[in-house]
Design a protein that fits this description.
This protein has helices spanning about 15-55, 60-85, 100-130, 145-165, 170-175. The chain is mostly helical. It has one domain. The protein is elongated, with a radius of gyration of 19 Å. The relative contact order is 0.15.
C-alpha cells in the first residue's frame, strides 16, 4: 500500500512524529477502504446489469449499496488529495508573491479550511446522530451512514490541513519524489 500512497510522513522526526504516524496510518486505512469500496461498487453494479439484462431480475439493494460505496470512496479520497496538494487551487495572484508570503498564505488558508472541516465534521456527527433511526429504503441499515462518511472525511481532512499549517504547503512533485 505504501507504493499506492507515497508518503514522507513516516520519515518525519521531532515533536510532530506522532501526528505524522497517525496520518500515515489513517491514509493507509483510507486507501485500502477506497479499494474495497470501489470493488464493491463495481461488483454490485456489474451484477445488477447482468441480472437485469440477462435474467430480467434485479438486486433490490444495488442502487443504495453502490451509492453508499461511492460516497465513502469520495469522502475518504479527499484527505489523500489534500496531503498531496492535488486539489485544484487558484494561484493567479498568490503565485506572484515571494515564496515566504506564499507559504504564509498557504498556512493561513489551511487553518481556515481546517476550521471549516472541523465544523462540517461536527455538524455531520449531529445530523448522523439525529437521523440514525432512519433506515435506507432497500437495506436494513441506517441512512446516516451517508452522513458518517462526510464526518469521517472532513475529520481526516482537518488533520491533514493542520499538518499543512504546522509544516507548510505540500507539492505533489515533492511527495512523489521522496519515494
Amino acid at each position: 500500500m505504501s507504493r499506492l500512497l507515497p508518503s514522507n510522513l513516516t520519515h518525519h522526526r521531532g515533536p510532530l512524529r506522532p501526528l505524522a504516524l497517525t496520518l500515515h496510518a489513517l491514509d493507509t486505512l483510507a486507501g485500502w477502504t477506497i479499494i474495497v469500496m470501489l470493488g464493491v461498487m463495481v461488483a454490485v453494479v456489474s451484477l445488477q446489469v447482468l441480472l437485469r439484462y440477462a435474467l430480467n431480475s434485479s438486486l433490490g439493494f444495488a442502487d443504495e449499496m453502490s451509492r453508499l460505496s461511492f460516497v465513502w470512496s469520495i469522502f475518504l479520497g479527499i484527505p489523500l488529495g489534500i496531503r498531496l496538494g492535488a486539489h485544484i487551487g487558484m494561484e493567479l495572484l498568490s503565485s506572484r508573491f515571494p515564496p515566504q508570503l506564499q507559504n504564509l498564505l498557504a498556512r493561513l488558508m489551511a487553518a481556515v479550511a481546517a476550521a471549516m472541516m472541523i465544523l462540517v465534521a461536527w455538524q455531520s456527527a449531529v445530523v448522523a446522530f439525529d437521523q440514525w433511526d432512519e433506515t435506507m429504503a432497500s437495506m436494513n441499515a441506517s441512512a446516516a451512514w451517508f452522513i458518517v462518511a462526510v464526518g469521517v472525511g472532513c475529520g481526516h481532512s482537518a488533520l491533514h490541513l493542520a499538518w499543512i499549517v504546522m509544516t507548510g504547503k505540500p507539492t505533489m512533485i515533492e511527495q512523489v519524489a521522496t519515494e
